[in-house]
Amino acid sequence: MTTVKKDEASYVRVDLPGLTMDTVKVRMDKDFLYFEGEDPKNDQEHDNEPPRKFKGQIALSTQCFHKVDEMKFVVKNGVLRVKIPFKE
User: Fold this and answer.
1) pTM of structure
2) Residue 46 backbone dihedrals phi, psi, to 5 degrees
């Protein structure tokens, strides 16, 4: 998990192997970014195992510094990338 603050926004990167845009939920609440998802596919060799689940939160600086309604995220190749612009 990586968090970087640049001139115009906070950027978050989280590895979520096997997950896609359809299987990940992201939301901001107060000073935290929450994410969760589930890999619906089971390993062919281990059909009795439950699907992998991911869940976490990241503390960001106070919400008054971010434009939460302009938050964007994408999941590609099992990597969640979030951009939360700063207020001017």
Assistant:
1) 0.83
2) -130, 60
Q: Could you please report the per-residue DSSP string of 39-74? A: --PPPTT-TTSPPPEEEEEEE-S-GGGB-GGG-EEE
- If you average pLDDT over residues 24-32, what whole number do you get? 90
Give the tens place of pLDDT for each residue, 54-72.
999 998 876 568 888 899 9
Q: For strands 2-5 and 79-85, give the pairing.
A: unpaired
CA 86 to CA 8: how far, in whole Å? Answer: 6
∠41-19-39 over CA atoms, to 5°? 30
What does CATH list as the number for 2-40+51-85? 2.60.40.790
**How many angstroms separate the CA atoms of 30 and 37, rounded?**
21
Domains of the chain: which residue ranges? Answer: 2-40+51-85
